[in-house]
Amino acid sequence: MAFFKRSSAGSSPTSEVPTAPCEHLGTIGADVAEDPVAGALECAGCVAIGEHHWAHLRRCLSCGYTGCCDSSPRRHATAHFEETGHPVMRSAEPGENWRWCYVDALTG
């Protein structure tokens, strides 16, 4: 699979240059159990402030922190990335197994 990034020179197809795939998605959390829901039933940030309503949960594959997604008012998963630099979150929703790399803005 080829990955491309548009150069700043323009937006025509000839201005696309190949880039390396995201190094984080395939390596970070490879040793984490396949069940993303285990231990991830609530947003840690919301619970800490007494909030019990969020849209969806995301689990950090570096440390296991569970936070609410950007559709939630407090956006604790993104705040966790901004505070720690941990690059990859995984959906903690039942039946979902995708990952998101904040650094490269890619889903895997």
Q: What is this entry, summarized?
A:
With 108 residues, the protein is an alpha+beta fold.
Defining traits:
two-stranded antiparallel sheet; 5-stranded antiparallel sheet; alpha+beta; disordered N terminus; 108 residues; 7 strands
Report on the structure:
The protein is an alpha+beta fold and 108 residues long. Helix content is 13%, strand content 22%. The chain has two helices and seven strands; from the N terminus they run ββαββαβββ. The strands form two sheets. Strands 4-3-5-6-7 form a five-stranded antiparallel β-sheet. Strands 1-2 form a two-stranded antiparallel ribbon. Strand 6 and strand 7 form a beta hairpin. The chain is globular, with a radius of gyration of 16 Å. The two termini are 13 Å apart. The N terminus is likely disordered.
Distance between the termini: 13 Å
Note the main sheet: 5 strands, antiparallel
Secondary-structure content class: alpha+beta
Mean of all residue-level pLDDT scores: 79
Radius of gyration, in Å, reads 16 Å
Number of strands: 7
